[in-house]
Amino acid sequence: MDTKTDVRLPRLTWAALGLVAALVCGWSVEEASPIQFDPALLGVAAYVAIWIPFLIALFLSFIGCTLSDAISFLGLRFQPLDALWGLGIGCLGRAFDAFLRMVLTGSSGLVQQPTLSALATPVVQTVALGILAPVVIAPVLEEIYFRGLIQRSLATVLEPLGRAPKWSAAVVLTSLAFALVHALLLIGTPNEAMLTGISTFVFALLAGATAAATKRLGGSIAGHIVFNGLGVLLTWPV
Hints:
Helix content: over 70%
Distance between the termini: 60 Å
Number of strands: 0
Number of helices: 8
Shape: globular
Largest sheet: none
Structural class: mainly alpha
Radius of gyration: 18 Å
Number of domains: 1
Order of helices and strands: HHHHHHHH
């Protein structure tokens, strides 16, 4: 019996539990939104509600391991070439999102907003909620969780399939999970959730393939930063 597979199975279990907990916590915050709370506080709560289950699942997945072992398993490394990988997949993913919306809705969706109430006042809120959270923290944490923990755990479990099939299956399954979480946590119409699910699935395929090909997360993290950063830049309130 493959000992490595036996060791990695609990990591996949923790990863799945983390996803479920993130969905439950995210939906709980959404249910609180009709109540009269400060929009900025709700924005912070939404991010924290999703991030905390991810962080707990990551911690539990590597209990008993050294930090270097965890970093090695996750592929948490960066090389200068990863910046080019990231620029390519980030721009391609954002272009596909705009193209998909143009075809299905007649609009790219990348239009400047007249106002964003959660970002309209203090500079600290603007930086934290409008830039730092979606462009820096979310890409790093989500890539570590999805392309690191989930995708690599799946590849280990699917080892009997062979190198190419196991990574192909791991990339597709991880991308489906990534897209499903983003679609289910979206506050919007079913059509918007569908569009978000499709575009995030395509981006996730690009990020997953990059992580699998390079054997590190640098390119996928850079790509996620570019993908989210372009979205923020092109929809920044006037």
